[in-house]
Amino acid sequence: MEKYSFSELLAYQVSNTKIANSENELSIILDIKNNQNFPTNRRMSSAWLKAIKSTHQRNSSYIQHANQSAIRLREEGNNFYSSKSGSKFDNMINAAQRYTEAIFAAIGNTEALALAYANRAMALQELEYYQQAYDDCVCALETNHYPVKLLHKIKMRQAFCAYYLKDSEKLKKHLEELEKITLNENFSQRVKELQRGLKNLDEETKIKTEETINTVLQLKESTEVKTDTKVATRGRYMIAKNAIKSGEVIFSERISSFVPVDGCQICQQCGAMLIIPIPCHDCDCSIIYCSLKCRRNHKNVHQYECTGYLCRLFEQIGISHLALRVVLEDFPAILPIVSYETDIYKLWQTLITSDGSLYTKTYVNYIQTLQMVTHMQKMSLPNKLWFALVADLLVVYLKDYTNFFAITNKTKLKQCDWESIVSALIFRHIGQFIVNAHTCSSISPTNYDVSSTTNRFGILLVPHIWTKPFHLQRGMLHSFSETKEVSAANLPYLSICNHACGPTLRPKFSGRNFYALADSSIEKGAEIFNSYTVTYKNSLRNNRRAYLKEIYHFNCTCTYCQKPDPDKSYLKYHVYKCRNPTCGEKFVPTDKQDVSAALHWWQVENGGVSCTFCSEEQNVEWFMKFTELLENTNNAQTRLELFRIYDIVDSFLVDFHTLKMEMGNDLMKMLIKSYNAGVKYNTFELNKLVSILNFCQRATIDRWGLQSLEYVTKMSVLWDFIAVGAYQSTQLELKTMLKALDVVSDEYKQVFLNYYNDYLQNK
Ligand SMILES: [Zn+2]
Ligand SMILES: [Zn+2]
Ligand SMILES: [Zn+2]
Ligand SMILES: [Zn+2]
C-alpha cells in the first residue's frame, strides 16, 4: 500500500464505486456503503492510513540522536544565557531561541525535554514573559523527568512568575510547596521576600476588586463577539438595517472553526501569531499553542487530530480538514438533543432542515453552518464521489485511531449509523467550504533579513529586533512589511453576503474574531457585499469572471462588471508613455493574448512592451539593472544610480503605475535596512527618499484605501523613517495613519502602537 499516494487511493476507489446521482449527502454515503466493493475500499483506506502512520514511527536510535541534539541545543542556549558580552536582552532572546529548538528536537518525555522547558522558563522570566515562563515550568514538570534535586529551583521560578502576574493564589501554593523543601540560606531569603510580596498582593487585591492577571494576548480569547443588530438577513443576502458610516463595524462574528495554512505557525486555539510556541510532542510538534490555557481549550479537538497530524494526513486533504474540524468542534454539542432519534433518515432531515426550533440558542452556531450554501448540486458525479470517499476515509481514520465514536454510546442509533451521519456531515461541509471557506490574511513577519528559524519559532524569538516584549527597536517596524494568508475559517454569517467586485465590507481578522468594516458609508437598506476574489481595482473583469464561474458557478453581473469600461479602474495603474520622442503617446499595453502578461511586461517571461501607436519596442533593460542595484544600497554610488533610474522611470510610467509603486516600496525597504546598518544619507538623498515615500503612500491609498493591510505594511516602512528622523510628519498625518490600524489584529496593533508611543508621538 505504501506506494499509493492519497490521490491514487481516491482515484482507485472512485473508479470501482457506482452510485446514483443525488443531492442528499446521506443518500450518497449510504449508496457508497451498499456497493459491492465497499469492504475492499474500506480495507484499502485502513491499510493506507496504517502505511502513512508507519512511515512516521521513530526507531530508538533516531530518538536517542534527537535527544542528544536537544541536549546540545540547550547547552548552546546556556552559553548565550551566561554570556557577558553584547546586549543582555538579545542574549536572552538567543538563549530562549536555542531552548525552543531543544524543545522541538526532543522526543518523548525525557530529562532533555524537562530541562529544555525549565531553561526556557529561566530565559523567558528574564525577558519578562512571565505567563509564558510559568507555563514552561508546568511543561517541564509534566514530563515527570524533571530532576528532583532541582525541584526547589523550578518552584521558586513559578512563585516569582506568579508574583509578577499578581496571581496570589498560585503564589501561595508555590510558597507552601517551597516550605516543605529544605533550602539553603539564599533560597530561604528569597522565599521570605516572596512571602512579603504575597502580603502586598493580598493588600492590593483588597483595594482593586478585579485584577487583570493575563497578558494582552490572552485577554482576547475571552472576548465574546456578539452579532451586531445593524444588519438583517433576508433569504440569502444581507442588508443594512440603518445607515453605517465608513470604517464602522458592520457586524462581527466569532470564527467557530479554523485550520492554519500549511506551515503557518499560529496558535491552534486562539489564532495568535506573536507567540512563544508550546508544541504538542505527541504529533512530532506539528502544531503549536501560545499557552497552556489554549492547549487545554483545544484538547476537545486535538485529542482526535493528534494522530492525523503525526502521520501528516491533513496536509493531503486540503479544505476537507476544515470540514472535519467543524464536525469535531460542533457535532458533540448537538448530540444530546438528537440522542432519542432511532431513524437515521429522520435524524439527517432534522440536522439539515431544522428551522432552529429544535435547538436551544447555545448551538445556534452549528445550525448556521449546517444550513450554509453548498455547491453539491453543481458538482459532477465523479467529484461528488471523490469528496464523499474523502469523508469516508476520515471516518475510517476516526474509527481506527481515535475513540471519537464513543461519544455516541448513550444514544439510540447504532454506531455504524453514526458513522454514516458523521461521514455525511463531513461530506456536506466539504461541499460548503469549497465555496464558503474564508481565507484569513494577516500582517506577517518579513523573512527578508532574518534567519529561516524565524519561520519555525516565531518573530518574538528573533534577536536584534526587540527592546522588550512587544516593543521593537527603533527602525525595525519594517519587520512587518508583508501580508500572508494564515488560515482557512468557517464564518457562516459572513457567508450570507453575496459577492461584488467592489465589496461594501473590508474584512478584519483578529485571533478568532472577524469584523466586517464598512468600506465606505452605507445607506439604510443597501445590500452588504463581500468580495470572493480580487477586487475590480486589482484585476481584469474577464479574469475575475472566469475565476468566479469556475469556483462559484456564477456570472458576475455586479455594477463594476457591468460598466461600459469595466477595466478602467484597474488599467489606470498601467498607463505607459511612449519613449519614442517623435511619438510620446500614452497607452496601456493590452495587445497580447494574455492581457495580464502584457500588462506585467517587466517580468522577463512576459517579453517586454511595445508602443501601441508607433510600435516602437521600449527599452526595459533598466529594470534588471535596478533590481541588481537594490542588493547593494549601502554603497553611495549605487544609491545615486538607483535614484537616477527612478527619476527616468517617472517620465514614462504614468501616475500611480503599478511598477513605479513596487519599485518605490522595494527601494524604501532596502534604504531603511542600510540606514540601520549605519549608512548616513545626505540632503539630496533625504529629499529623494521623502518624495518616493510620499508617492508610495498616495499610490497605496488610491488603490487599497487607508484602512487596508496593504497600506499598513507600507506604513511600517514609513514609520521607521519617521522614527529615525529621516521623514517629518505632521500631527494630522500621524493621526490619520493611526486610523489605518483599525484593520490590524489586536496583537499586531499593539506592536504598532508601542512603536508609535516609543518613537513617533514626540517627533
Ligand atoms: Zn492561543
Ligand atoms: Zn498532537
Ligand atoms: Zn463583478
Ligand atoms: Zn509610440
Task: Characterise the protein shown here.
Helices cover 52% and strands 8% of the residues. The chain has 763 residues and is mainly alpha-helical. Strand 1 and strand 2 form a beta hairpin. The protein is built from 30 helices and 16 strands. Among the domains are: 60-216, Tetratricopeptide repeat domain (Serine Threonine Protein Phosphatase 5, Tetratricopeptide repeat, Alpha Horseshoe), CATH 1.25.40; 447-480 and 653-763, no CATH class. Mean pLDDT is 90; it is low at 209-229. The longest helix is centred in the N-terminal third of the chain and has 23 residues, at 60-82. The protein has a three-stranded antiparallel β-sheet, with no helix packed on it. Strands 4-10-7 form a three-stranded antiparallel β-sheet. Residues 267, 269-270, 272, 289-291, 294 line the site of one zinc ion.
Outline type: globular
Largest sheet: 3 strands, antiparallel
| Estimated helix fraction | 40-55%
Classify the oligomer: single chain
Strand content: 5-15%
- Spatial strand sequence of the major β-sheet: 3-13-12
Number of strands: 16
**Average pLDDT level:** 90
CATH topology of one domain: Serine Threonine Protein Phosphatase 5, Tetratricopeptide repeat
The CATH architecture of one domain comes to Alpha Horseshoe
Summing up helix and strand content along with how strands pair, one would put the structural category as mainly alpha
CATH class categorisation of one domain: Mainly Alpha
Number of helical regions: 30
Q: Ligands in the structure?
A: zinc ion
Classified in CATH, the superfamily of one domain is Tetratricopeptide repeat domain
- Low-confidence segments, ≥5 residues, pLDDT <50? 209-229
Gap between N and C termini: 66 Å
Radius of gyration equals: 29 Å
